Amino acid sequence: xxxPFLPPLAFxxxxxxxxxxxxxxxxxxxxxxxxxxQPAPRLEWVQRVQExxxxxxxxxxAVDWVLDGDSITDFWQDPKRGAGVFAEHFGKLRTxxxxxxxxxxxxxxxxxxxGQVEGLHPRLITLxxxxxxxxxxxxxxxxxxxxxxxxxxxxxxxxxxxxIQAIFPRGELPTDPARARIKAINAIIxxxxxxxxxxxxxxxxxxxxxxxxxxxxxxxxFLHPSAKGYEIWAAAIRPIVEKYVPAH
Length: 248
Description:
This protein has a 5-stranded parallel sheet with strand order 2-1-3-4-5, sandwiched between helices. Helix 7 links the parallel strand 4 (161-165) and strand 5 (198-201). It is of the alpha/beta class. The protein is built from 8 helices and 5 strands; from the N terminus they run ααβααβαβαβαβα.
């Protein structure tokens, strides 16, 4: 039975387009509330959410590892980007990737509220989210949004270990304004780790050249990893995945 939250198709056709992940952003103005912590849907992507919900229900009880986030995690499933790397390193594991391109913290919270992990009992949850919030939210608001997601996952999957992955560097040059903001956000969310149920891992420097630039061969658009970038990512998290997720 499909969830009742899906709007009519006609309504979907007039929904606005998603925020372009690679677009520049101004520094956010103070907001009358923290949108990064308020669960919210993206009307143009509800069908994808429904497909993920259906997939989750079919695999209930048969998933050890949940992946979540935005396009950077979503593209583990893209044959032109990370799918081959994922299959090589983690293909024998029981996984489900809920990430959706363009998502911000509030969208993950909304997806969780729809029952995304209901019936699942993962051993490991890997999360990276927040880069798409940079346009509209302050660093502190984004960190609060990530903290809200971690708390929500802890409530819904109390037996799981949550791996918070630092937001990846973006922008070609180390002087890109996004770099300093991401560094500040990562410093805040690192404090969410307790070393037991919640782990924090920052391997962003592995993507960078010695001079701090972000090579195109690693991230062609200075945001999304290439297959080579996904190889770096897989190697960085593999020890943690092997510790918590058994091969079947």
